[in-house]
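Researcher: Can you fold this with flavin-adenine dinucleotide in place?
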Amino acid sequence: MSLPQFKLLRPRSVAEALEHLGKYAGSVRVLAGGTDIIPSMRQKLFEPEYVLDLRAVVEIRGIKPQPDGGAEIGALTTIRTIERSEFLREQYAVLTEAASTVASPVLRNMGTIGGNICLDTRCLWYNQSLTWRKGCGFCIKKDGDLCHVAPGGTKCWAVFSGDTPPALLCLNAEIEIASAGGVRRLPLADFYTGLGDNYRRLQPSELVTRVFLPASSAGYRGVYRKLRVRGSIDYPLAGVAVVMKRSNGHVADARIGITAVNPAPLLVKGASELLAGKAVDEALAEDVGDLAAKISKPLTTSALTPEYRREMIRVFTKRAVLAAAQAHEN
Ligand SMILES: Cc1cc2nc3c(=O)[nH]c(=O)nc-3n(C[C@H](O)[C@H](O)[C@H](O)COP(=O)(O)OP(=O)(O)OC[C@H]3O[C@@H](n4cnc5c(N)ncnc54)[C@H](O)[C@@H]3O)c2cc1C
Ligand code: SF4
């Protein structure tokens, strides 16, 4: 499948990139590592007039520990850099573990944290060639007006399938979004809409520039568990991130994030309250697993049955909670 024709813009600074985005908003797509957008362009899911290649914008590449104990990560930092960061492994282990499961080593060398956060939602009826989609009459997410997954409805249920966002949600991460008009900062949890088509709150003239990890989330034990068909390369079909802090054998604080079973990565509401002040045992971990399964709404957007993926959220959550508690004892 060939790439559609486009004009390439190669800014060398954030200011230059934002100028291009402001000027060509609506007819430009951002390329960071290109590991997701290039295959999508080959499938003619995007046919922009301009591609804004960010790879020469060095000022938003790298991890900066902050004086208060938190961290700032440039949006162009590769997944590999995050996976290999000793600082992040010590302070924000759940993020390095999730990063280490993204795709394959080659794709982690190219792919960026900004691209992982902004990753397009996926569906078996959408991530296909133009000919394939045309043969099926297209769908709501691109060029059509019906949903093959939930016929009769008007909503797109394409699933968010990034690995690092559930870990970032557990860490209460915030992101910086910049445009020619200025900069805004918001909790990552507010970035996703929960819709499969318009899945993120980002204007065409805006760029995700930085990720902030608060000092208050440093030092938590973290675990990430992921279901995929091929262990060496695949997107998650279900994913669970857990962070936990314990004191005197009891949970002082904990958060759980899930991915690949809804149109957005989500924090499991009520999990922190359920775990707080308790000693973790099988029964408690199972209750938390039930809670996570309850908010998982997988449909036939992906390989494997929705029932199995939901069940694996339950099982992985239980195992991850037990493993996070265990990690504290070692
Ligand atoms: C075979 C294969 C397997 C994969 N497996 C996984 C997996 O297991 N887990 C997983 O999480 N991902 C997986 N991916 C997807 C992808 O490799 C990663 O998500 C990667 O982190 C994307 O980053 P990127 O820089 O390459 O994004 P790009 O492809 O450059 O961009 C992705 C999207 O984000 C937008 N974007 C990128 N950066 C910014 C920014 N700074 N501001 C605003 N918009 C931006 C782009 O316009 C585009 O819409 C896989 C991809 C392939 C091809
Ligand atoms: S969930 Fe429905 S509308 Fe969305 S991509 Fe899949 S088939 Fe298309």
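Model: Folded with flavin-adenine dinucleotide in place. The longest strand covers residues 238-247.
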